[in-house]
Every structure is written in C-alpha cells, then in structure tokens.
Amino acid sequence: MSETSTARIRVVIFQEGGMWVAQCLEYDIGAQAVSVDKLHERLAVALEAERQESLARNGEPFAGIAPAPEHFHRLWEKRLGRFEPEGPVEPNIEFALCA
C-alpha cells in the first residue's frame, strides 16, 4: 500500500457471522474476509482505493470520509489487545483485536 496519511489510523478487528471484519475508526473504511491474513490484504486494498479516490476528488488523502460509527469506537475501548498482522504494515496504522 502507498503512504496512507500522516495521521494515525486505528483499526478494530473482530469476527462476525464467520467472517473477520476490519473497521477503521478515523475513516469509515472497512473490509471483511474469511481469514485474518486475507483481511489485512483486503483492508490495504480498500485503504489505497479510498486514498486515491479522495485525492482525486478532494485533493487530500481520505478527505471527505466521515469517521466510523460510534459503536466501533467503543469496541476499541474494550479491545482484547494489539493485533500484529503478518507482512508489511504502514507505521501509522494500529490494529486492535476485539471481542
């Protein structure tokens, strides 16, 4: 993934209906997959696509994308711990595993 932004992006990860879900908090961007490894890949693709689209439309990465709904922020507060995906991770992205 290209540079996403200089601001920190927090991501909650949880299981729902047999799928793994990743939801960014600062921007309402998410992804889902059957495995955590695939989830990280899909989130990277979604972030890059949203970054490119917001640059084209608004001139800044992620401009015009609202924060995630509040219940995702509450999940962050109740997180079980940090999650470290395999492979390269942008330095400004922090993952939390949630129940």
User: For the largest beta sheet, what order do the strands appear in spatially?
Assistant: 3-2-1-5-4
Mean pLDDT: 87
**Assembly form of the protein:** single chain
The total count of helices amounts to 2
Query: What's the CATH architecture name?
Result: 2-Layer Sandwich
Major sheet characteristics: 5 strands, mixed
Number of E-type strands:
5
What is the highest CATH level, the class?
Alpha Beta
Overall shape: globular
- The structure class reads alpha+beta
Number of domains: 1
Terminus-to-terminus distance: 27 Å
Descriptive key words:
26% strand, alpha+beta, globular, 99 residues, five-stranded mixed β-sheet
Outline the structure in words:
By secondary structure, the protein is α+β, with helices and mostly antiparallel strands. The chain has one domain: 2-Layer Sandwich (Double Stranded RNA Binding Domain). The termini are far apart. It has a five-stranded mixed beta sheet with strand order 3-2-1-5-4, with helices on both faces.
